[in-house]
Queue: 4 jobs
Job 1
Amino acid sequence: MSRKPAARAEFTLFDVFYEDDSQRSNRRVPSDVLGGLDGDAPARAVIEEQDRLIAEKSGAPALAVKSLRRSGSKKAYETARPPRYASASN
């Protein structure tokens, strides 16, 4: 008899940038809290809550989140980079 597939929890990964210019990559946020009219805004609250819990357990203060973006998405300057090789005739 075949087994019933288990329900998979779907997550979206985010890169988080903090006020002290540090970065944490691939932070997991449940996909069901994202979308709708707020887009990715609820991810900040989830990540800040995760950070608060981590800070409680470690005894270190939680860092303030400066910005976040989905992991794997390109930065604005990466999408509009100049050509790799400039011509020598300039």
Job 2
Amino acid sequence: MSIQPAWQQRLDFFGPPIIVEPSRAALTSDAGLLPLRQFDEHIGLTRAFAAALDDPRDPALTEHTFLEMVRCRVYGILAAYEDQNDHDTLRHDPVFKLVAGRPPDGDDLASQPTLSRFENAISIASLKRLRDLFIDQFIAAFPRPPRRLTLDLDAVDDPAHGRQQLTFWHGFYDQNQYLPLVITCADNDQLVLLSLRPGNVHAAPGADDDLAHLVRRLRQVWPDVELLIRGDAGFGVPWMYDACEARDLRYTFGLAANKVLQRRSEPLLTEAVRCFEQTGAPQRLFDGFWYQAKGWPFPRWVIVKAEANAHGTNRRFVVSNRPGARVLGEAAYDDYAGRGESENRNKEFKCGLAMDRLSDHRFVANYFRLYLHAAALNLLTRLRRQVAEPPAPAAAAAVPTEALAGAERRDHFRCRRQRDPLGEGQPCTWRLLLIKVAAEVIGSTRRVVVRLSGSWPHRDHFRHVCARLAGAAARAAPSG
């Protein structure tokens, strides 16, 4: 335990003097991590993660296990301690000791140099096992075989601020960076597969191989599942069409505009402008046609959206082999636009959980660090679904959520976030309402007592999460 030197600070703004001094009690500021650790114990996420790693060390000389260090890093990321340096302080924290598997008054956890050696010790074989582990955990998250899954592909820029291996300048992003590939599932929000790539690649290289591996694994378990693939125009390239068509996958990809597409969609845009000028109401028109680019072996169906409003005009193109795309172009396009929700998961990954802090020098070490951040995201995502409130009953004449648009859609999701702040909450919301709470930790031979503040305004959220976890554990327990 770290004992701070005695000191007092006198403040005089109140009237009677205010004396601030340190306490010798074992205190923490992150007691809200405990329910997350309880959920982790139930689903076995970090235990399986650590088991996938090769540990080359002599067990007789090992003080900090890989499992302990995985949990230090994953829970540190969840609590906004994304850097190894943070753990030089956190190694003394009683709650971090508990979540890592040590008693609160036990030996200190791993220091920054030890964590650095840990991340740099990971082998390529371990990374391959982690890739399959993420797919295994994704499959296990479904209580019954799904009939259909929607998988979203995205490239997420990861700016670099040093001289890490394989970081390069990317002209589009105008920065030195990595460019990870992320595949998420729109049906349960989980991150299913990821790849760390050099910073100067196009969005799509390697995506066909990753998709082929993922599809093969999923169909080994669910041979009848229908898979829908979505991606922006960066993935609208011939080898991605070929990869999908060879595996009987339904896809919708963005398509970059060119002179031929613009010429063929000009009448639709003209009609949208004419209707807007006549009515003053924003216009959003759709059309579709067969189109064959020079490098394509045969024509493919292209949907065009033309918009006209007070801000000007806008045209967007997608290419799709979905059967309904030729009949219901607007619906097919709107389903493609739904991939924006998966982009929100990527935003959480990058901004909320600091995925872009890949500051090890070696590329393989940074690849492993990306997996640590992904594990933190999946743990939070799965817990969020576990504690979410059931949808509010809709009025008899209410429009289905999928059909809402514009201000009505924004109001719907705003009300949903207000009603269920944890079930809909981003990482910063979870930290504010649950994770970041001071507590006193008292350990004995019989039990560990964690005393929260009686005036903590978000105590009900803590109790709600614990009650949901207890209910889930009771349902999962064998009867008899």
Job 3
Amino acid sequence: MLQTHGHIVGMTGDGVNDAPALKKADCGFAVSGATDAARAAASIVLVAPGLSVIIDAIKESRKIFQRMNSYAMYRIAETLRVLLFMTLAIVLFNFYPLTAIMIVMLALLNDGAILSIAYDNVIYRNQPEAWNMRVVLGIATVLGLVGPIAAFGLFYLGDRVFHIDRPQIQTMMYLLLSVAGHLTIFQTRTRGPWWSIRPAWILLAAIVGTQVAATVICVFGFLVTPLWWGWAAFVWGYALVWFLVTDPVKLLAYRVLDTTRALPAPLAEVGSTPGARTEAKPDAEAAPKSEAKPNAKVEPKAATDVQPRPAAQDEPKPKGKAEPEASTSTATKPHAEAQPEANTGGAALLSRTLGDLLVAGLVKDPEDAGRIIAAAIAQAQPSTASRQAPEAEVKPEPKAEAKTPPAPTPKAAE
């Protein structure tokens, strides 16, 4: 089910019944002491007890991915550098910048140095790694295009400015491609500046060793035209300058191409932006205020409605004036306040009827009990109707109370 939704599933097991799940999972782990069936179905077999070794395996796999990514960028960039420079030099200037033996030595020294990248220091990511060919090809293309520009610049200086012989220019081109190519490793191994991650000693020693060998070959003329020490030092300085110029270009290319690295930070900020908080706060604050204001206003009204009633009881007033006050009070009061009063009147009537029923029960006259219930129902209907009418809120209650007591008394006497 998880795989159908696009998730990468891992499974651990040690028994025969776990073999199908280990086989179906994207990565199955057979723990220490697992059966042969579980070991055969699993992708990884854990030798040490416990599951903590899985974390170490994930970290190491992400480091390997970073090294593979660096190697792919370097190899594509170096291939573009050599092929574009040689092709354009032959087509445009009818000049072969490298001999066949130079190309062979360049390939051997480059491969010898790049093998040590397997032991390089890298920083793994906390998120799962995935190939981003847009970034790999984009960065490699940028570095591969900068290389021929630097090579043609040195060719122009040696041929038109310093008037060096063509065989010596070929040796200078070989030394430049070798030095600049190995410096490219320091650029492809990091996403930030080239000094952001310290290289491993084995990688640094391999690069320095191969470049010292290439310089010695060029100076002493082993299978190539000898080159003066001064020109060799000039080529080293020229390559270092272009290395420092290319690194900011690489950082700019990462900003343009690698949009996935910049997305998590703005998304995290959007969730905690001040605008989002200020929009949520008014809603949370408005709700309590809207609930508190009606309560604060209703309580004074209830107090004002209660205060005139004691005054009406203490000071006798004409009936014509008392009725409008009662009507106004009932008009301002909600229906929720009038209903409890009707319920209390019905409760009083019910209590009196129950008293009469008890008396009838003592007399043991069932017919009197039936008449009492019928009379109580008949009296309850006009009393509830009078409670709902605003004009006769006070007067009908005493009349109903005056009529009800005499009815059961003679029957109780009998």
Job 4
Amino acid sequence: MMTQELPLNIEGLEQYQSKLAGSSSAWLKAFRQKNFDQWASLSMPTVKDEEWKYTSLSEVVNRKFQIATRHQLIEDRQFDNYRDKADINVVLINGVLWGDLSNLKHLPQGLKISTLSETLSHGNTEVQDTISKLTPNDTKAFLSMNQALFLDGAYIQVEKNAVIEPLVHIIHVTSGITDNTVVFPKSFITVGESAQVSILESYISFGPVPFLSNAVTDMRIGANANVTYCKSQAEAHQAMHVGTTRIWQERASTLDSFSFIHGANITRNNLSILIKGEGTNTIMNGLYGLDGHQHVDNHTLLDIQHPNCTSYQIYKGLLNGSSRAIFNGKIYVHSLAQKTNAYQLNKHLLLGKDARVDTKPQLEIFADDVKCTHGATIGQLNQEEVFYLQSRCIPKQMAIQLLSKGFIDDILNTIKNDSIRGKLKPLIVKKFPEVKL
């Protein structure tokens, strides 16, 4: 019998673990148990923890959760409007890969897609080795919980020298659940040497149901590879989303990443990129659009361990109502990482009088031959600009919308992939159909 007090109260956990153990290989069973023991030894982070001081989890800790047992899509019509048949769609319902909803029968040469549980059970040493070496970052309790309790996930492999033209769209759908359900979306992506691929990973739900999404994505990018990766979080406003994305980037590779957040009531988004080779190029851009009482906490870490690397990061937030945003972006330059060129900027536009921002761009530099800059801005619309547009017979409300759109488009237009950009723009337009001061 399970007698220890766990960080999160989950009903029927012992029976669920027995079911997992019965269907796992020896390696996967040991991996789950190791992570469960780590999770059981931890406490949920509180506002007393430096990395969580602006985000309270009391609302989560005081609830009793249950793990999703149904893995069936019930919102077929809404989902069809979201999916583009021209993409390579990889659809997971409550953490389980659904082949019938995906289109995986005629994949381009050099692309392999399978369930993550099957990959781990069959002893894929590259995946096992990468997962064990990636750092846990600031969401350690949630990471251990995900790796102990995930049922399935998606494994995406792009082989060496492969060029994948269609967009690979991983769609995590939370559907058919009851109140206070917890789901564990999980993906592992490996991109071989000199390969090219564009990936959009979306998190969506349609019903007004409170739930916890504890999501983990791990990625390994081989030498000279070129990857475009975007994470889009558009879950219901009653949800809480804790996302952990860990990326291992090797020599002379290029990563163009984008984080897009406009769903959930509370979002904690952790992105950690580990630079494990010389001459890499890394772009870390993001946009979050909030209204009502939404709360978004973005933490990013770029860990540069090798010389001659470049990075560029701009995160923008558009806040309406009484929403709140936190940004903590750290760039860590090791002593060996000479000739590093790193740029970081965080900008916020406050439309709501009660909106609030806490921002903390950070540089930790232990090399002496580098070029690193960072900055942050928080402001409201320039009333002179609003007045100028009004003097040109543009109504005040439309003037506000135009200026807000300019703020948004500036960052969205950094997305080079037309298919990804085309999917994100309608979401943010729906978010602010009528901007009010």
